[in-house]
Amino acid sequence: MVSQVRRLLGGPYMGDADRAVRTSSASVAQEKRGAPREIRGLARAEVARSRGIASAERTVKLAHGVTGAWTAAGIASTALLPMLGRIAPRAPRTVRVDHARTLALAGGRIRFHSAGTGDEALLFLHGFNSQLSVWDAVWPRLGEAGRRVRIDIAGYGGSRWVSDSYALPAQADRVLQFLDALELARVTVVGVSMGGSLAAWLAAHHPERITGVVLLSPSGYPGALRYRGPFGRLLRPGVANAWATQLARTSVYRRLYPTSRALHALTVTASYGDAWAHALSRIRAHTWLVWSRGDATVPFAYAEAVARSIPACTLVPVSASVRHDIPGQRPELIARLACRVHEGVGPEHIARELEQVLQQEGDA
Fold it and tell me: How much is the pLDDT for 81?
């Protein structure tokens, strides 16, 4: 890491702080070979803006104040750290949900909302940078479906969880820790987008805890996720992703950008791709895959590939107008499907029942 930073900044370590600020801006613009191509391109745009340079100077001063000494990594942050802070997604306002609670676990706190009783439950997992309120339209339609729980995944919404990784394996362990704390032996898991990717990972690696699976446009298949803008370039697997991840893990970045979701996005997408696709064949439970034909975030073109990778899977296409907001646009469909799967109703019967709902919604 240090050698990369030195090459990026155009030479050996410099102890003079003012000279470091001036030299870092000039050397980034010269496209030194040490940094990944994506980083160089984004850094050039950043240095070209006076506001970015001013922010970089403030970053250097803070870095010096935190570390007490000038380091190569601290100098590199003069251009790259504010750049990442500007283009990375930020946490939205946490939506208040009546009767939601928080549970302290080893490593952090999980906010959740539950109803009903029993040692088995319906578990709802939201997408990236979202929270449990995404299920607001579905929740009242669940009726008397037994115990049902929706959570803010660790690091999102009201679930405070500081970590170096929000990858699927780590998040799966946190979900299991939560289920153990609530004494839930098994669950039917319903997940959308990132939550769908996490639901599939849980079903593949912990099949003894999963009785049914409902995936809404899961984002983990290789090449499926479409994240627009400069930050999307950093989500591609490779050196640039690793380089940006190291920067997002620094204490200086965390202090400057406490609401940044850069590390969340970088680490979870690093666990997507081939590893996720290969895990699908290990899912034992019958899986229902709901996907909009007009989804621009995770295109419908990947639906068949995901469905073929799961041993027992039923694909349920919905209208293009639904796009990526399946819980908000088709709450009746999702509530009906989740309840029937949780009740253990056979796939053939569920399929016939869904035909009526799809016709009513104009999806047939």
Answer: 86
Exposed, middle or buried: residue 105 (CB in 10 Å: 0-12, 13-18, 19+)?
A: middle
pLDDT in tens, 73-101: 555 555 688 899 999 999 999 999 999 99
- CA 30 → CA 53, 223, 262, distances in Å? 15, 32, 26
Quick: pLDDT tens for 148-187.
Answer: 999 999 999 999 999 999 999 999 999 999 999 999 999 9
Please give the model's pTM, rounded to 2 decimal places.
0.83
Both structure tokens of 60: 């250097």
**What b/e string do you get for 18-33 counting C-beta neighbours within 10 Å, with b at 16 or more?**
eebbebbbebbeeebe
Reading the block at residue 344, the tokens are: 């253990």
β-pairing, 101-105 with 108-115?
antiparallel
- Measured CA to CA, the distance from residue 310 to residue 123 in angstroms comes to 20
As for how many domains the chain has, the answer is 2
CATH number at residue 210: 3.40.50.1820
Token duo for residue 202: 């849980």
Domain with 127, as residue range(s), is 101-225+272-361
